[in-house]
Amino acid sequence: MGILFFAPSVIYAQGLSDAIQDAYTIVNYLIILLSAAAIMVFFFGIVRFISRSGSEEAKEEGRRTMLWGTIALFIIFSLWAIIGLIQGDLTLVGSIENVDIFPKVQTR
Asked: pTM above the 0.90 mark?
């Protein structure tokens, strides 16, 4: 199924660099989506921990949920940094700095 995504690049003979750029764009959006999901899991663990503070078992389940959310965020951002380093070293298309996740503040 994943190979079918690159079918337009192959059919229209756009070349390898365009296929790499398409893959890069997909990975960037996937990282953003997974980061948002990990943050939601973390906050779900916080809500579970606070709302069920009467039960020790439910508090432990909330702690585990927060821990897994934190581990997921660490893994996602580590992979994002590794991809950025590889792209910088191999001078592949795009760079990690071109990803617009956070709003930019204009300075004078």
From this structure: no
